[in-house]
Amino acid sequence: MKVFIGGSRNINRLNDEIRNRLHNIVKQGFEVLVGDANGADKAVQKYFLESKYNSLVVYCSGETCRNNLGSWKTTKVETPMGAHGLKFYMVKDHRMAIDADYGFMLWDGKSAGTLNNMLNLIKQNKKLLIYFSPKKEFYTISSTEDLQKILTLCAHDSLAKIDKKISYSNIIKEISRPKQIQLSL
Hints:
- The chain is α/β, with parallel strands linked by helices.
- It has one domain: 3-Layer(aba) Sandwich (Rossmann fold).
- Helix content is 43%, strand content 20%.
- It has 7 helices and 7 strands; from the N terminus they run βαβαββαβαββααα.
- The chain has helices at 16-28, 40-50, 85-99, 112-123, 144-151, 156-166, 168-176; strands at residues 2-7, 31-34, 56-61, 73-77, 102-107, 128-132, 137-141.
- The protein has a 7-stranded mixed β-sheet, sandwiched between helices.
- β2 (31-34), α2 and β3 (56-61) form a beta-alpha-beta unit.
- α3 packs parallel to α4 (112-123), α4 (112-123) crosses α6 and α4 packs parallel to α7.
- The longest helix is centred in the middle third of the chain and has 15 residues, at 85-99.
- 32% of the residues are buried.
Protein backbone atom coordinates (compact mmCIF):
# COMPACT_ATOMS: atom_id res chain seq x y z
CA MET A 1 0.00 0.00 0.00
CA LYS A 2 1.16 3.50 -0.82
CA VAL A 3 0.21 6.59 1.17
CA PHE A 4 0.63 10.13 -0.14
CA ILE A 5 1.61 12.38 2.76
CA GLY A 6 1.57 16.12 2.20
CA GLY A 7 0.63 19.33 3.83
CA SER A 8 0.91 23.02 4.37
CA ARG A 9 4.23 24.82 4.34
CA ASN A 10 3.13 26.54 7.56
CA ILE A 11 3.19 23.20 9.38
CA ASN A 12 6.84 22.50 10.13
CA ARG A 13 6.58 20.64 13.43
CA LEU A 14 4.83 17.37 14.12
CA ASN A 15 2.96 16.92 17.39
CA ASP A 16 2.68 13.58 19.17
CA GLU A 17 -0.68 12.76 17.55
CA ILE A 18 0.74 13.16 14.04
CA ARG A 19 3.88 11.26 14.98
CA ASN A 20 1.70 8.39 16.27
CA ARG A 21 -0.12 8.22 12.92
CA LEU A 22 3.22 8.17 11.09
CA HIS A 23 4.40 5.41 13.43
CA ASN A 24 1.30 3.38 12.41
CA ILE A 25 2.36 3.79 8.77
CA VAL A 26 5.80 2.42 9.66
CA LYS A 27 4.29 -0.52 11.58
CA GLN A 28 2.12 -1.43 8.59
CA GLY A 29 5.05 -1.14 6.18
CA PHE A 30 3.31 1.26 3.81
CA GLU A 31 5.35 2.92 1.10
CA VAL A 32 5.32 6.69 1.67
CA LEU A 33 5.05 9.15 -1.21
CA VAL A 34 6.10 12.61 -0.07
CA GLY A 35 6.93 15.89 -1.75
CA ASP A 36 10.07 17.97 -1.44
CA ALA A 37 8.69 21.26 -0.09
CA ASN A 38 9.61 23.01 3.13
CA GLY A 39 7.02 22.77 5.88
CA ALA A 40 5.00 19.58 6.28
CA ASP A 41 6.92 17.65 3.59
CA LYS A 42 10.26 18.40 5.19
CA ALA A 43 8.96 17.69 8.71
CA VAL A 44 7.59 14.31 7.57
CA GLN A 45 10.89 13.49 5.86
CA LYS A 46 12.72 14.38 9.08
CA TYR A 47 10.45 12.05 11.08
CA PHE A 48 11.12 9.12 8.73
CA LEU A 49 14.85 9.86 8.67
CA GLU A 50 14.96 9.80 12.48
CA SER A 51 12.90 6.58 12.43
CA LYS A 52 15.35 5.04 9.93
CA TYR A 53 12.40 4.18 7.71
CA ASN A 54 13.41 3.75 4.10
CA SER A 55 10.20 2.89 2.27
CA LEU A 56 9.88 6.43 0.90
CA VAL A 57 9.79 8.03 -2.51
CA VAL A 58 10.35 11.78 -2.76
CA TYR A 59 8.50 13.43 -5.64
CA CYS A 60 10.03 16.50 -7.26
CA SER A 61 8.91 18.88 -9.97
CA GLY A 62 11.56 19.40 -12.58
CA GLU A 63 15.12 18.14 -12.33
CA THR A 64 16.11 18.78 -8.72
CA CYS A 65 14.55 18.08 -5.35
CA ARG A 66 14.45 20.93 -2.87
CA ASN A 67 14.53 18.51 0.06
CA ASN A 68 15.45 14.82 0.22
CA LEU A 69 16.79 14.47 3.75
CA GLY A 70 17.29 10.70 3.58
CA SER A 71 18.63 10.50 0.02
CA TRP A 72 15.62 8.30 -0.74
CA LYS A 73 14.53 7.18 -4.19
CA THR A 74 13.04 10.07 -6.20
CA THR A 75 10.39 10.45 -8.85
CA LYS A 76 11.01 13.53 -10.96
CA VAL A 77 7.80 14.70 -12.59
CA GLU A 78 8.06 16.60 -15.84
CA THR A 79 6.26 19.94 -15.77
CA PRO A 80 4.66 21.83 -18.65
CA MET A 81 6.79 24.44 -20.36
CA GLY A 82 6.32 27.82 -18.71
CA ALA A 83 4.64 26.48 -15.56
CA HIS A 84 5.71 28.30 -12.40
CA GLY A 85 4.63 28.83 -8.81
CA LEU A 86 1.75 26.71 -7.53
CA LYS A 87 0.99 25.29 -11.00
CA PHE A 88 4.60 24.05 -11.32
CA TYR A 89 4.26 21.97 -8.12
CA MET A 90 0.65 20.89 -8.65
CA VAL A 91 1.76 18.56 -11.47
CA LYS A 92 3.92 16.59 -9.04
CA ASP A 93 1.16 16.53 -6.44
CA HIS A 94 -1.36 15.26 -9.00
CA ARG A 95 1.00 12.42 -9.87
CA MET A 96 1.34 11.46 -6.19
CA ALA A 97 -2.47 11.32 -5.87
CA ILE A 98 -2.61 8.97 -8.86
CA ASP A 99 0.23 6.76 -7.59
CA ALA A 100 -1.07 6.51 -4.00
CA ASP A 101 -3.69 4.23 -2.49
CA TYR A 102 -4.48 6.60 0.38
CA GLY A 103 -3.70 10.15 1.47
CA PHE A 104 -2.67 11.79 4.74
CA MET A 105 -2.74 15.59 4.67
CA LEU A 106 -1.60 18.03 7.33
CA TRP A 107 -3.69 21.14 6.64
CA ASP A 108 -3.72 24.60 8.19
CA GLY A 109 -7.01 25.57 6.52
CA LYS A 110 -5.19 28.11 4.33
CA SER A 111 -3.00 26.15 1.91
CA ALA A 112 -4.42 26.01 -1.62
CA GLY A 113 -1.92 23.30 -2.59
CA THR A 114 -2.96 21.01 0.25
CA LEU A 115 -6.66 21.46 -0.53
CA ASN A 116 -5.89 20.70 -4.17
CA ASN A 117 -4.15 17.48 -3.07
CA MET A 118 -7.26 16.46 -1.14
CA LEU A 119 -9.44 17.13 -4.19
CA ASN A 120 -7.09 15.12 -6.41
CA LEU A 121 -7.36 12.16 -4.04
CA ILE A 122 -11.15 12.42 -3.89
CA LYS A 123 -11.29 12.56 -7.72
CA GLN A 124 -9.38 9.27 -7.72
CA ASN A 125 -11.93 7.79 -5.24
CA LYS A 126 -9.23 7.45 -2.58
CA LYS A 127 -9.76 7.91 1.13
CA LEU A 128 -7.64 10.31 3.08
CA LEU A 129 -6.97 11.35 6.62
CA ILE A 130 -6.71 15.06 7.33
CA TYR A 131 -5.03 16.54 10.35
CA PHE A 132 -6.74 19.95 10.58
CA SER A 133 -4.28 22.03 12.58
CA PRO A 134 -6.63 24.88 13.65
CA LYS A 135 -8.75 22.35 15.58
CA LYS A 136 -5.89 19.89 16.25
CA GLU A 137 -8.20 17.08 15.08
CA PHE A 138 -8.19 14.26 12.54
CA TYR A 139 -10.93 13.73 9.96
CA THR A 140 -11.45 10.83 7.56
CA ILE A 141 -12.52 11.97 4.12
CA SER A 142 -13.89 9.85 1.30
CA SER A 143 -16.18 12.27 -0.54
CA THR A 144 -16.71 15.92 -1.38
CA GLU A 145 -19.48 15.96 1.24
CA ASP A 146 -16.97 14.95 3.93
CA LEU A 147 -14.56 17.62 2.71
CA GLN A 148 -17.24 20.33 2.67
CA LYS A 149 -17.84 19.70 6.39
CA ILE A 150 -14.17 20.52 7.03
CA LEU A 151 -14.39 23.62 4.84
CA THR A 152 -17.11 25.01 7.12
CA LEU A 153 -14.44 25.16 9.85
CA CYS A 154 -12.20 27.44 7.75
CA ALA A 155 -12.16 31.24 7.77
CA HIS A 156 -14.18 32.70 4.87
CA ASP A 157 -11.33 35.00 3.82
CA SER A 158 -8.94 32.04 3.64
CA LEU A 159 -11.36 30.08 1.47
CA ALA A 160 -11.85 33.09 -0.82
CA LYS A 161 -8.06 33.33 -1.33
CA ILE A 162 -7.84 29.59 -2.03
CA ASP A 163 -10.74 29.76 -4.48
CA LYS A 164 -8.97 32.53 -6.41
CA LYS A 165 -5.88 30.31 -6.72
CA ILE A 166 -7.40 26.93 -7.59
CA SER A 167 -11.20 27.45 -8.08
CA TYR A 168 -11.87 24.70 -5.54
CA SER A 169 -15.63 25.42 -5.48
CA ASN A 170 -15.86 24.63 -9.22
CA ILE A 171 -13.78 21.46 -8.74
CA ILE A 172 -16.13 20.29 -5.97
CA LYS A 173 -19.16 20.92 -8.22
CA GLU A 174 -17.50 18.99 -11.04
CA ILE A 175 -16.62 16.03 -8.81
CA SER A 176 -20.08 16.00 -7.20
CA ARG A 177 -21.96 16.10 -10.52
CA PRO A 178 -23.56 12.72 -11.24
CA LYS A 179 -21.95 10.91 -14.14
CA GLN A 180 -24.23 10.50 -17.14
CA ILE A 181 -24.78 6.99 -18.34
CA GLN A 182 -23.94 6.44 -22.00
CA LEU A 183 -26.86 5.03 -23.95
CA SER A 184 -26.22 2.59 -26.77
CA LEU A 185 -28.94 3.09 -29.31
